[in-house]
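Z., the sequence and structure:
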Amino acid sequence: MENNPNTRTGGQLLVECLISQGAKFGYCVPGESYLGVLDALYEVKDKLELIICRQEGSVAFMAEAHGRLTGLPGLGFVTRGPGAANAVIGVQTAHLDGTPMILFVGQVPRKNRERGAFQELDLKGLFGSIAKLVMDIDHADRIPEIISRAYRTACSGRPGPVVIGLPDDMQLELTQALPCKKNIPTKTGPGSDSLIQLSEMISAAQRPLILLGAKPSNWCQTASDDLQKFVENFDLPVATVFRRQDQFDNSHPNYVGIKGVGNDPQLEKLVGEADTLIVIGAEITDIESNGYTKYGIPNPTQKLIHICANHYDLGKVFQPDLAIVSDYKEITRALSLLPRAEKTPWSDWVKQGRENYLKFTTDPGHYQEADLAGIMMWLRKSTAEDTIVTFGAGNYTQWVQRYFGYTKFGNQMATQSAIMGYSVPAAISASLLYPERTILSFAGDGCFLMNGQEIATAARYNTNVMFIVINNSLYGSIQMHQERRFPNRSMACDLTNPEFDKLAQAYGLPARKVTSLDDFKLAYEELDKTSGPCLIEIVTGQDILTPSIKLVDLRKGS
């Protein structure tokens, strides 16, 4: 067998299969449990680049971000035991946000299973509830079969994560199996009867409204463009759901806002007035339904048309009058070809919704010295149209979501699961994929320090990321919720921080600290001329928790 020219190790065959699927990057913290794969990767550095991270949670976040941006599974490699445990957060993110990714976990040698071997861990027990598929590759001959299945599973229906265990000894096992062919995803399209019924329901409506929020890895710019044609033909208002803002051009006259956290009260009113909801992609969770208090369960008071790329997200809580399962590129193309509406009695209502949105996104809310609203509005006007923005979780995100608009798909990188620590690794992944584009990574002080060590990774690979840390020395979101329920009794929220500009400089990044809009403009324009990563720290006060909420008002009960 060793003399056969097709003989290769399991590790070599695994890597060849990944390359055959089009993989260009993998993200890792190296571990002794997958040395056979690392050795195989050594031979193909020019085909599949391995990005070295500083913690396995970041590995999984970068792989998730890769899948979100490309629609193809991002690849993570971690060691057994603590490495796999650290990676859980990114797998959970991919599960909740419907993102394709494959996490490879080095495992104990097969002969040592279930003996309590060093760092042994049951992958199915750990990942079973959050991954679409969890399995070990026990025989090198099965690698092509299992990698093909992993790619199809990760990308099909509702995309999601796959976890594959790689026993140490299997990676060195010799095999004559050949690499698998590239997986071709399955596509579905809408039926003609469904399209006729949809047209009839819109024609019968007085105030129809689109709620848009597809899984990012299922969506594309072509779908956005075709949806825009449909919207214009029927003069429909479009609201995007929480953290799906870039799926429709925010500058379009039919765009009316974001149905998420920190909503415009006028948008809430507009959605409440709609008699027909056309929900595209969104799951209609507690965020879209205001804690499941809107619409009516299980049968909404409004007519509900629900379009998804899979059956899983349809009818969980709210039963639609019309349900359509279709690939988004196919359904938006079909919608764009529907005959133009002869009458649109809701046109004035749409214009009012647009006026409300423009007012909401230019009103700075509660003004503060650092003027976060002004900074976001200035960045919106001053950055390129293809700028990618990443952010994690915390009250600082309300300024980013409210005041930074998008005209193209793929420019907003944020999880619907709102996980802290996401922004930094996601921005690094985005920059590796698109080195020619501007990448802005927003993070609060609490959010940044959860994965801030990855600026070492940003520096190592000279990524084009500007890290913007919004520092109020507070877990502000938690304090806000505490003060609402237990006024004047907040605890565990005050933070002791480093000087973030000096911390970044210690990693070799040029950095500045600012306290005002004018200072920010100067710092941005100076650092924008540099190459590689950089950082701006914005120091803010603690009283203004969001654009519409002040701490002092919460304590007064107003």
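Residues 223 and 328 are 6 Å apart (CA to CA). The mean pLDDT is 93.

Let me know what you think.
H.
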